[in-house]
Write a structure and sequence with these properties.
The structure holds two protein chains of two kinds. By secondary structure, chain A is an alpha/beta fold. Chain A contains twelve helices and 16 strands. Chain B has an eight-stranded mixed beta sheet, sandwiched between helices. Chain B has a two-stranded antiparallel ribbon with strand order 5-6. The chains are: A alpha/beta, B alpha/beta.
């Protein structure tokens, strides 16, 4: 059924549809509406869950770990500083192979303090061992949350997953969302079967000390599970399409077939980029677009296939690996570096801290890419779009 | 010894062969707490000596389900265990314990404990207090007593060692108005076990502060751990009490020494205080502080 809702309402509704046993949470802008909605569901008897209002994000995710290791399905939400405060526990949730699902309202990290759209928070956690989904709109926010449970709880995976949705652009913006029926979600998402739990009838030591004799093997197993989860994600995307009619891919192509320049985007800026590509095409400019929906596991093969025929690839990122450039650019470049046939890659930073991303910014990027095609060079690495140099 | 570590009807749930030091007070505390709590128990453990010395994979000393996640969050992890058991109707009388050292309680774990207590989680938090960060090599903590020398407040020509008073952790906890707050030492087994059993009976947050001497950090003979934990009580350095509910007037003393021994007896048995023996004014201050503390408890 189509309903109009904000991104936070979509993630909260998705959580409700997935019937988590425990929802530990700590409110933070721009995700606060998630615990608010959950508390309303509980107050109105619409959701039977243990809603645990922790005294910090660190304790929220810690309680999530405690609940998950006791066999509960666990869901939470946070953003920005809250995710940064959880940093330590993100690695632990993944290391303990706990399929916790978390919605993250993608927001800038301080300083200066800023509550607006920016993917620095989740991109900075890309090494933590979680599956990363990035939503372009509220429909994807809801759908990815549901699929995050199914993928993470799969016996071949057992990993936590986060779903990023851009602050305000999605978290607070009303959009139509096709809401699945509860019965359909129940059919799609089976009961969670944990791999090992705290149970006095069968005592286990969980979270033991891993000495140099064993630590590396646990990391290898974690890496393998995360890489192998790509196939499970593809499988779940297919099952989701069959059940709900919406098709997803880890990497989505748009007008890339004959494109000279392809933009690579994640999250809500993709919609703007799509408009920009259409306008450029109307002007005879061969622009294309590739959207990354799943950043972890990194879709290197799919990206390379989607990009290899372009002359120039412009990776547009709403985050920056300070002291380097775009993190996704760097990862992509690392996967292309040994290929003889590869496009010229360029790194563009834009939209930080909620700075508007306009179609014109993609025009600027395209113009710079044309210089590269003509054998020219760019002035800086990374390049910046939408930067007000007058105030520097 | 007058009291046996484990009464005949109790089952040992903490296996020998772990890597705790000879004479380790906290291992002794855990053994007693588990024996009193029984097998229907889940433990969430903070990072520290206890976790390191008992769980090096593939070995474990724990015969009850046990989880370790990080240092500051044993109370939060235990809250999640409590939440899951409650919501999934798997409680069935299971005791949920959080175990942490003084660092994971007085300092870095302070916030998570307060949150867990305020939320009225059904968790029994046990701090095994050896008065410094022993796992990392005897650094001072807000539990370190005045005058003790540690590796981050060393005694020296310009230093008496620790210059701050020990944080009154159990009193701060009691101010949360929880079901049960108690202090104990490993040397009075029956008292400690009775308190553990009382905590297990009560529905709601409980807190047990267990003084647990550390031969390595306190620099005493490993054979003297139990005796020293008693001497702490006999001198009034450590007061054993319990409180059900939030009215501080209801605090009950668990043991009142007939004649308090001078604190010097306690101090001189430990290397961490040895530098004070030539500083009578510091010794006098410690005795005065202890006298005042005892006066507050009516003896």
């Amino acid at each position: 059924m189509m309903q109009i809702m904000r991104g936070n309402e979509a993630t909260a509704l998705a959580a409700k549809l997935c019937r988590p046993n425990v929802i530990p949470a700590y409110p933070i802008t721009p995700s606060t509406m998630f615990p608010e909605r959950i508390s309303e569901y509980v107050a109105d008897g619409e959701l039977d869950t243990y809603f645990l209002l922790a005294e910090s994000e660190h304790s929220a995710i810690s309680a999530g770990i405690g609940a998950s290791v006791t066999g509960a399905r666990v869901c939470t939400a946070t953003a920005s500083q809250g995710l940064a405060l959880m940093h330590e526990m993100l690695f632990i949730a993944a290391g303990m192979r706990l399929p916790i699902v978390m919605a993250v309202g993608n927001r800038a990290l301080s300083a200066p303090i800023n509550i607006w759209a920016d993917q620095q928070d989740t991109v900075s956690e890309r090494d933590a061992g979680w599956i990363h989904f990035y939503a372009e709109n509220n429909q994807e926010s809801l759908d990815f949350m549901i699929m995050a449970f199914k993928v993470g709880e799969d016996k071949r995976v057992y990993l936590p997953a986060m779903v990023g949705l851009d602050a305000f652009v999605l978290t607070h913006t009303m959009e139509p969302v096709d809401v699945p029926e509860q019965a359909a979600v129940d059919r799609f998402l089976p009961k969670y079967e944990p791999h090992c739990i705290l149970d006095p009838k069968n005592p286990m030591t969980i979270g033991a000390l891993g000495t140099p004799d064993v630590y590396m093997e646990t990391r290898y197993a974690l890496q393998k599970a995360l890489m192998d989860s790509a196939a499970v994600i593809d499988e779940v995307f297919k099952q989701f399409a069959t059940a709900f009619g919406r098709k997803y891919e880890r990497v989505s192509k748009y007008r890339t077939e004959d494109a000279d320049v392809i933009f690579v985007t994640m999250g809500s800026m993709t919609g703007t980029a799509r408009v920009a590509v259409d306008r450029m095409r109307e002007r005879g400019k061969k622009a294309g677009l590739v959207k990354i929906t799943v950043l972890r596991p990194f879709p290197s093969r799919e990206l390379k296939e989607a990009l290899v025929k372009a002359k120039v690839v412009a990776v547009a990122e709403r985050a920056i690996s300070l002291g380097y450039g775009g993190a996704v650019y760097g990862e992509l470049a690392g996967h292309f570096v040994n290929d003889i046939k590869r496009p010229i890659l360029s790194s563009f930073i834009m939209g930080l801290g909620g700075r508007d991303i306009l179609p014109e910014h993609f025009d600027e990027i395209f113009a710079k890419c044309e210089r590269l095609i003509a054998g020219g060079k760019l002035e800086e690495f990374p390049e910046w779009a939408g930067l007000n140099r007058e105030v520097l | 010894m007058a009291e046996d570590a484990s009464a005949p009807e109790e089952r040992e749930l903490f296996a020998s062969g772990h890597r705790g030091c000879a004479g380790c007070g906290e291992m002794n505390a855990v053994r007693q707490v588990l024996a009193a709590a029984g097998p229907n128990t889940i433990v969430a453990n903070a990072t520290g000596c206890l976790e390191v010395a008992t769980t090096a994979w593939p070995e474990t000393a724990w015969e009850v389900p046990w989880v370790h996640a990080a240092f500051e969050n044993a109370a939060a992890v235990a809250s999640g265990v409590d939440a899951a058991l409650t919501q999934m109707k798997k409680r069935q009388g299971i005791n949920v314990f959080a175990f942490a050292g003084d660092g994971g309680t007085f300092d870095i774990g302070f916030q998570a404990i307060s949150g867990m207590l305020e939320r009225q989680q059904k968790v029994i938090f046990v701090v095994y207090d050896n008065e410094a960060y022993m796992n990392t090599g005897i650094q001072r903590c807000s539990s370190t007593p005045y005058g003790a020398s540690t590796t981050t407040c060393p005694a020296g020509t310009c230093s008496i060692g620790e210059t701050k008073a020990k944080k009154p952790m159990a009193m701060i906890v009691a101010a949360h108005g929880i079901k049960y707050t108690a202090t104990a030492t490993i040397g009075y087994h029956a008292d400690l076990k009775r308190k553990v059993k009382r905590a297990c009976e009560l529905e709601g947050p409980c807190f047990l502060h267990v003084l647990a001497p550390c031969p390595t950090g306190w620099r005493h003979d490993s054979a003297d751990t139990v005796a020293l934990s008693r001497l702490a009580v006999e001198t009034g350095m450590f007061i054993m009490w319990e409180l059900e509910g939030k009215n501080l007037k209801d605090i009950k003393l668990s043991r009142k020494p007939k004649e308090r021994k001078p604190v010097l007896e306690y101090l001189k048995a430990q290397g961490r205080f040895r530098h004070l023996l030539k500083q009578p004014e510091v010794l006098a201050k410690i005795q005065k502080d202890v006298d005042e503390q005892c006066a507050q408890f009516g003896f």
